[in-house]
Amino acid sequence: MSDSDEEWERDEYEEEEEDEDQKCPCLFCIEVHKSGEDVLEHCRVKHSFSLMKFKSLLKLDYYECIKLINYIRKEHPSVAGIMSISTPPFPWSDDVYLKPILPDDPLLQIDYEDEEDVEKAKIQNHIFDDNISDVNEQIISDLRRRLHNSQITLKKTEEQLAQSLYDIQCMRQTMNGIFSEDRCKVEDKKSEDDEYFSSYSHYGIHAEMLKDQVRMESYQVFIYRNPELFKDKVVLDVGCGTGILSMFAIKSGARHVIAVDQSDIIHKAMEIARENEVHDRITFIHGCIEEVVLPVERVDIVISEWMGYCLLFESMLDSVLFARDKWLKDSRQIYPNHCSLSLVAMGDEYEYQCHVGIWDDIGGFKMSCMKEDVLKEAVIMTVDQYSLISSDDVIKKFDLTRVKPADLEFESRFSLTMQHNTQCHALVAYFDIGFEVPTYRVYFSTSPQDTPTHWKQTVFFFREPVKVLTGDLMRGSFSCTRNSNDHRCLNIELKAEILSFHEPNNGPVKIEQSFSLS
Length: 518
Description:
- With 518 residues, the chain is an alpha+beta fold.
- The chain is 38% helix and 22% strand.
- It is built from 16 helices and 17 strands.
- It has helices spanning 3-21, 36-46, 51-58, 62-75, 79-83, 114-125, 137-175, 180-199, 203-210, 213-225, 227-230, 244-251, 265-275, 316-327, 349-355, 371-375, and strands spanning 24-25, 32-33, 234-238, 256-261, 282-286, 301-303, 334-335, 338-346, 379-381, 393-399, 410-417, 422-435, 442-445, 457-468, 473-483, 486-499, 509-517.
- The strands form 4 sheets. Strands 8, 9, 10, 12, 13 and 14 form a 6-stranded antiparallel beta sheet that branches. Strands 5-4-3-6-7 form a 5-stranded parallel beta sheet, sandwiched between helices. It has a 4-stranded antiparallel beta sheet with strand order 11-15-16-17.
- It starts with a helix and ends with a strand.
- Residues 12-20, 126-135, 178-190 and 196-201 have low confidence and may be disordered.
């Protein structure tokens, strides 16, 4: 054998070793396979995603397939997110996705042209034809190897399925009924979450929030006036919605933003980012923050607009605190970082009659039995600042850099001094938000005395109006807990007494009512 022959065989052997050492990660999980073909089969079996069928369905050419693979590698969309795309323009259309994300990615070395698919089909149809000797032996060997591996995999899968069915049957016989109540709770919680996130898929609610001048300007001013906080930082936007906060952060100098939202509005957010040419610096992830995997180990900043009615309605703060504890390098870099909840008394005969007194006479008929149920529901409304009749009292403060989810259920004492001789019809709750940083601090309030917001105020109407005089003291307790049937709703327990210094012999007037915010 000549030296050139030996060198040729040695090179071929080294190439074979390199091929064997080459690994190919899955597009959607952390599993690694030996070849691109194995990854495609893994995606088809485990993730129910067939790249070839998807290519055919969307009529993708070779280069669009390459872009799709690099898009998935870079942006980490979910399978459901990819499968929901059916018409152009596609999120991977940008030529930036022609650049490989993984060096020597085996998936990029596969020929995805339809002509090759047709040729392979012909080979399979004639594999046992009399002219088999004319077919490339290497292709036949490869097809046989794949068939053999598929048969082995199928057999193992069938065995595992049979064992799983047997285990399930045994479990049902042994554990029947023990966890029925817990199962119901899990199913109910999933139903609650589905309904909640579905509501945020509609444009109307986002239009309302984007038109809220107080909300928009507060976040925008904070982010733009504190560029040193965001410059070259990785930012996590929890509950990104249309992605407006993510784009604020990019404009303020953030190196990259990871935007997470479980509602389908995130697909529009991707289009919005592309329309504003910031899509290459924002990674959108469709999913629940408690379940998704981020493309980084830690982030520098967490930002979110999580506030609900009465501050805590919808329980989105729980998810923000989860993100803080799991992903944030420094817990102090969460914004907003301070908030508070306050109470004030209201005297408004017109609003009381509209919500409560109306049931005393409907077309000449009494419907007073409706009152009790009506009074159990807190009312979300814009309160006239001139109907406020007492001092304010901050009943709860939260430092978001340290607060724990358990702290969001609480009981607080309050004390209000009456400032008018009138009738007291209700208590009003509102919240204040603070972005407290050394350079440029920003605050906003949802108080009736400030510019109205889409949060409005939360009103707790009394069963009957209470007479008050200037200087009278209303003191009591305000308890806030989660609804056991729907964790996103709130139960409020209100206990109060009014002490009159003008009529001390009459004794205090006591109020005790329960409300739900749902």
